[in-house]
Amino acid sequence: MPGINMLTLEDFNYNGKRVLLRVDINSPVDIKTGLITNETRIKKSIPTIEYLSDSGARLVIIAHQGDTEDYNKLISLREHSEKLQALLDRPVGFIDDVAGPAAREKIISVKSGEILLLDNLRYLCEEVSTFERDVKLTAAQMTGCYLVKNLAPLFDYYVNDAFAAAHRNSPSMTAFQELLPSAAGKLLINEINALSSIIVEPERPCVFLLGGLRVADAFGMMRETLSSKTADYILTGGVTGQIMLMAGGINLGAPSVRFIKDRSLDRFVKDAKEYLTNYPDKLLVPDDLAVDENGIRKEIATGDLPSDSLIVDIGEGTVKRYKKIIEKALTIFVNGPPGIYENDISSMGTKAMWGAVADAPGFSVIGGGDTISSASKFIDTEKIDYICTAGGALIRFLSGVKLPLIEAMKQSYLRYKKD
Ligand code: 3PG
C-alpha cells in the first residue's frame, strides 16, 4: 500500500485467540420483503473470515446495516449470518444482541475455528452517522463507549476489513485500535491497493468518467484529480455534465435548469467555470444530449439548446467521442452513470459507455452503488478489473480526504509493529 503502513493478517498468530473482526456487509434490502437483494459485500468478506477461522481464531464478527438516514434498512443481521454460513459452507452462529450480557456470554463460549456474528451495530446510538456528526468524539474518547468498553476486554486482536465504512469515525471502526493489536483484512488491502493504483502514478492516459446525480462527489474528485495532475481526461455526463454546460454559458432549458436548481446543484457552476478555464484540454463536456419528449427519445446538439424537455442522457456523438478516449486509456475510473439508465429511452449512453470500459484494454475500476447496479444490468462485470465495494469512502479517498479508518490503522501500526 503506497505510503500507508498497516499491520496485516500475517502479522499475528490467531490460534486459540479471540479475534474481533469488523466487516462491511451493509447490503441493499427490498423494502417490502425486508430481504437482502445483493450479496456482493457479503461475498467479498469471505476470504478474511476463512483465513481467520482456518488459523484457529475464536472469531466474532461485527457489522452494521442501515442507518438513521437509511432507517428502512436498519434490520437485524440474522439473514446476513445465514448467507455467510451458506457461502463459507461452515456454521456461523448468530445472537440478537450487540454487546449486552447475552452477547458477551456467547462470545466467551466461541471455540477455536468457530464463527459468531453479533447483531446490527447500529442498534447502538453511538454507531449511527448522526451520533458521529453531532457528538464528534475522538478515537481515544470512543474507548469509553458502550461497545468498546464491553467488548475490548474479551478480545486478543481486532481486524478491520470494512473499507466501505472507512469514512466513519465510529467506535467499531476506529476505537478498538487504541486498545488491541489490530490488523487490516484482505479486502481492506485490496481496495486501498486498487484505488491507489489510480491516484499514485497511474498508467497513462488516466481517464475519469464522472456522471450521476452525486454532483458534490464528482466535483470533489475533479478538484483533486485535476490539481494533482492525476487525471489526463475527465469525461463528464449526467447532471455533472449539464452543470459543465451551464458554466460554458449554455441555457439547458427550463425543465433541466429547474431540476438542477431544485436540488441546489447550481452552486457548482462557479467551480465548473474555474475548472473549464484552468483545464480546458482535460475536461470534456457533452456536445449532444438526449431529451425525453413525452416518452420519446430525441437527440439534440448542445448548440441547439435550450429544450423544453428534460435532458435524460448523453447523445450518440458524445458517446463516439468519449469511446475513442476510453479505448486508448491505460487507467479508467468510472463513477456515476451518464444518463437515467433505469429507463429504456435514456439508457443508451450508460450502456454504451460501460460497454466501452468493459472492452477497453486499460485497467478499469468502478465504484459506487448506482455505477455497480447499472454495470451489472448492462455488461459482464467480470470484464471490469476491479469493482470497489465502497461508495462514500471511495469518493473521499479519491478526493484526497483523510479516512478515519486508515488513520486509526496507521496509529495502531506505530503502536504495535514489531521492531
Ligand atoms: C455504505 O453503504 O456506504 C457503507 O456501508 C457505509 O454506510 P453508511 O454510509 O451508512 O455509514
Task: Please describe what this structure looks like.
A six-stranded parallel beta sheet has the order 3-4-2-1-5-6, with helices on both faces. It has 419 residues and is an alpha/beta fold. Helix 10 packs parallel to helix 17 (392-398), helix 11 packs across helix 13 and helix 14 runs parallel beside helix 15. Helices cover 40% and strands 16% of the residues. The chain has helices at 40-44, 46-54, 78-88, 101-109, 129-135, 139-142, 146-151, 171-174, 186-199, 215-227, 238-247, 254-262, 269-278, 316-328, 348-359, 369-378, 392-398, 404-416; strands at 18-23, 58-62, 93-95, 115-118, 157-161, 182-184, 206-210, 233-236, 283-284, 288-293, 296-301, 310-314, 331-335, 363-367, 386-388. The two termini are 20 Å apart. It has two domains: 9-191 and 402-416, Rossmann fold; 204-361, Rossmann fold (3-Layer(aba) Sandwich). 3-phosphoglyceric acid (3PG) is lined by residues 24, 26, 67, 70, 129, 164-165, 168, 391-392.
